[in-house]
């Protein structure tokens, strides 16, 4: 895992966009973002048990797997949004980026590689993209039935209970 301030330059979202200013993992923790390196599935199982994750699935995001829908899906994942539940991803192969909003509403980019596990709190605005290799395989973990419902950033989303609770903690 590598985290840094997003450089905000125009260009392909899948490029590094590294400003050269790193972000300390302690800052991510203040945002409620949890990171663990899990060299084995047993480490993931332990975290899943601790946090009461009951279900999981796997997703491959790549042109080979998604065909002509790939570009549209990657653009959809990159729309700024939040979820009403935690978002948990364990990287099985490939690389990608999660961007999260910082305290001052600026973007923090988090590069994840094989063996990285990230937990984004409910209510945090974020977005996702593959890197320039256009391939990532991830395990998605869920507390209940698998669901992935993005709420794209808007004034009415700012007033949802998940967002309000997140803001009060951050």
In whole angstroms, the N-to-C terminal distance is: 22 Å
Shape: globular
Q: Strand count, sense and closure of the main sheet? A: 9 strands, antiparallel
Helix coverage percent:
10-25%
What is the averaged pLDDT score? 95
Assign the structural class, choosing from mainly alpha, mainly beta, alpha/beta, alpha+beta, or little secondary structure.
alpha+beta
**Could you list the spans in which at least 5 consecutive residues all have pLDDT below 50?**
none
Task: Specify the number of helices.
Answer: 6
Computed CA radius of gyration, to the nearest angstrom: 15 Å
**Beta-strand fraction estimate:** 35-45%
For the secondary structure, the number of strands is: 11
Give helix and strand order, one letter per element, not per position: EEHEHEHHEEEEEEEHH
Structural overview:
- By secondary structure, this protein is of the alpha+beta class.
- The chain is 24% helix and 38% strand.
- The chain has six helices and eleven strands.
- The strands form two sheets. Strands 1, 2, 3, 4, 6, 7, 8, 9 and 10 form a nine-stranded antiparallel sheet that branches. A two-stranded antiparallel sheet has the order 5-11.
- β6 and β7 (107-113) form a beta hairpin.
- The longest helix has 10 residues, at 41-50.
- The two termini are 22 Å apart.
Output the keywords:
single chain, 170 residues, alpha+beta, 9-stranded antiparallel sheet, two-stranded antiparallel sheet, globular
């Amino acid at each position: 895992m590598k985290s840094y301030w997003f450089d905000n330059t125009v260009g392909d979202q899948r490029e590094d966009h590294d400003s050269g200013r790193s972000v300390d993992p302690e800052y991510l923790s203040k945002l409620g973002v949890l990171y663990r390196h899990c060299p084995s599935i047993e480490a993931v199982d332990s975290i899943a048990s601790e946090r009461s994750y009951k279900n999981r699935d796997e997703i491959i995001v790549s042109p080979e797997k998604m065909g002509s829908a790939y570009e549209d899906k990657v653009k959809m994942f990159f729309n700024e949004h939040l979820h009403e539940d935690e978002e948990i991803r364990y990287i099985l192969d490939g690389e990608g980026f999660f961007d999260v909003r910082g305290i001052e509403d600026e973007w923090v980019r988090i590069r994840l590689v094989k063996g990285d596990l990230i937990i984004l709190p409910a209510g945090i605005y974020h977005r996702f993209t593959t890197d320039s290799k256009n391939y990532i395989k991830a395990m998605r973990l869920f507390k209940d039935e698998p669901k992935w419902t993005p709420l794209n950033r808007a004034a009415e989303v700012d007033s949802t209970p998940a967002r309000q609770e997140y803001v009060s903690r951050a």
